[in-house]
């Protein structure tokens, strides 16, 4: 529940604050957002599986974002497109976490359905 509240709060703050991202830093912001979303979806999945740990979530949230930005920075300094690798990795993890969440919601919904009586 905490990751969902954080995501909603972040979206509201992002809409309310007039912040312009310059083209120079937009690749860094995009990858950091993708890494952060991956952590949020992972936190939601862990919460639904009753294995959520706040320390793991916070360290993963900031650690993934900083690591991704660092990789992009090093790639830019070496003139290598490493942002594509980060997009693939975090995109794959994001969709995997979403699939876990979806399966848990479906399983929870199916368990609440009344059983049909055979006639």
Task: Please provide a written account of the structure.
The chain is mostly helical and 119 residues long. The protein has one domain. Helix content is 78%, strand content 0%. The protein contains 4 helices and no strands. 20% of the residues are buried.
Rounded to an integer in angstroms, the radius of gyration calculated over CA atoms is 18 Å
Q: Tell me what portion of residues adopts beta-strand conformation.
A: under 5%
* Mean pLDDT value: 87
Q: Determine the N-to-C terminus distance.
A: 41 Å
- The total strand number stands at 0
How many H/I helical runs?
4
Sheet/helix structural class: mainly alpha
What portion of residues is helical? over 70%
| Dominant shape | elongated
Number of domains: 1
**Secondary-structure element series:** HHHH
Described by strand count, sense and barrel closure, the largest sheet is: none
Q: Which residues form runs of ≥5 with pLDDT under 50? A: none
Index terms:
single chain; 119 residues; mainly alpha; 4 helices; 78% helix
Helix and strand arrangement:
Layout: H1 2-16, H2 26-48, H3 54-78, H4 83-112
Helix pairs in contact: 1-2, 2-3, 2-4
